[in-house]
Amino acid sequence: MTTTFKVIVNGQHQLAVDPSQGTLLEAIEAAGIESHYHCRNGFCGACRTQLIEGQVNYINEPLAFIRPGDCLPCCCVPASNLKIEHR
Amino acid sequence: MSYSTFNQTASNPLLEPMFFGNSVNVARYDQQKHVIFEKLIEKQLSFFWRPEEIDVSRDRVDFNSLTDSEKHIFISNLKYQTLLDSVQGRSPNIALLPIVSIPELETWIETWSFSETIHSRSYTHILRNLFTDPSEVFEDIVINTEIQKRATDISRYYDDLIFYTQLWQTHGEGTVEVLGEQHTVSLRDLKKKLFLCINSVNALEAVRFYVSFACTFAFAERDLMEGNSKIIRLIARDENLHLSSTQQIINLWQYGKDDPEMREIAEELREDAYQIFMSAVEQEKQWAHYLFKHGSMIGLNEEILCQYVEYIANMRMQAIGFDAPFKQRSNPLPWMNKYLVSDNVQVAPQEAEISSYLVGQIDNEVSAADLGGFEL
Ligand code: FES
Ligand SMILES: [Fe+2]
Ligand SMILES: [Fe+2]
């Protein structure tokens, strides 16, 4: 049985994301939303996204500083339903 | 406080601030105050590469087929990058090692600077292949007024910090006369100089390369100068890691996770930090203007490059707690990203042959299982 979480992006897109199927960044891209990234490896911070509501799990350890209220979608998956701003 | 290469005070590095505490004595990495720097060292070491591993021989033919304005763009960018890495290959060592107080950060600074010297060596590798005698290109770096303007801005915060650190380490706090000039030295002022210097370096690593990178990758998009592009991708990957370290330092200060006085200074000098960043952005835009003064190149022009600088600057400034100052929220050069993905350095579909630059790339992949106990 897989769990999917509801992820609301930029207040206008609603995604159903299965955390076993890839990163949050990949889910954003699969939904056709413009994504922001460089390294896709957790160290550059270019994918920095506001985490308005919910929790994420890091599947790879990020080296970029994560300011409170932010997440790095290139290396995390949802751990609950989420509201994020990825602009 | 004079510098000692082996400070005999039995200090506890876990309690030292990043800078201006006791100088480091034992180079030990079994324990860390800020474990992030140990991780950055490991990452940088896993990235290790040498320019000679990349075959640039085909670039010579491509270069000769470029228009004059494209040649100007290509060579000017190499000059600017040579300047940046000349500064970065030495300055973190000279400015920061005398004042660093924890071993993992000391070694990160050395590792970081060392990787910049590899960048410098790669420009020689690229230029030697293009010109029988590249002296003219190198010599112009010191006399070219466009480059000079940038050199002044990049080196002044370093130079200021270095000079006052020297005074402090030889004379202590107070007023001292050097060559007929009075200088007032205080630790608080030194910390301010350090703060400004790190912000200037952060801006350098964050935006100063990106106009040049965009030009390089725009050539690569046309299947031109691909050897050069492979090298620049490796450089770009390193620069992103360096940036991560300066962002870490600034954020650790801002969030009061290090020297409490640095937190105060971060607040006090917030506007100065903002201006440092904005002027780096402005200079990058002027650089785009200079590059294209003889004509633009396919896929790029001054306007779109300036938009790209703003796009990058927004994300970099938000990373250190500023609001995004520019309207440019979407990426005007989406193809840039594929050159900046760190894993694409290994698997680049548009490359004819896979070069051997993966030798150093052990342990670059960390699996979720390795991090079972990791929490943020
Ligand atoms: S893309 Fe680099 S940290 Fe996410
Ligand atoms: Fe560099
Ligand atoms: Fe760098």
Question: What would you note in describing this structure?
Answer:
The complex is a heterodimer of chains A (87) and B (376). Chain A has one helix spanning 24-30, and strands spanning 5-9, 13-17, 49-53, 56-58, 70-71, 76-78, 82-85. Chain A is mainly beta and 87 residues long. In chain A, the strands form 2 sheets. In chain A, strands 2-1-7-3-5 form a 5-stranded mixed beta sheet, with helices on one face. Chain B has 376 residues and is mostly helical. Chain B is built from 13 helices and 2 strands; from the N terminus they run H-H-H-H-H-H-E-E-H-H-H-H-H-H-H. The longest helix of chain B is centred in the N-terminal third of the chain and has 29 residues, at 68-96. The complex binds FE2/S2 (inorganic) cluster and fe (ii) ion (2 copies). FE2/S2 (inorganic) cluster (FES) is lined by residues 37-47, 64, 72, 74 of chain A.
Set down the secondary structure blueprint:
The complex is a heterodimer of chains A (87) and B (376).
Chain A: E1 5-9, E2 13-17, H1 24-30, E3 49-53, E4 56-58, E5 70-71, E6 76-78, E7 82-85
Parallel strand pairs in A: 1-7
Antiparallel strand pairs in A: 1-2, 3-5, 3-7, 4-6
Chain B: H1 35-46, H2 59-65, H3 68-96, H4 103-130, H5 135-143, H6 145-171, E1 174-178, E2 181-185, H7 187-208, H8 210-221, H9 226-254, H10 260-268, H11 270-291, H12 302-318, H13 336-340
Antiparallel strand pairs in B: 1-2
Helix pairs in contact in B: 1-4, 1-9, 3-4, 3-5, 3-6, 3-8, 4-9, 6-7, 7-9, 7-10, 7-11, 8-9, 9-10, 11-12
The structure holds FE2/S2 (inorganic) cluster and fe (ii) ion (FE2) (2 copies).
The site of one fe (ii) ion has 5 residues of chain B, from helix 9.
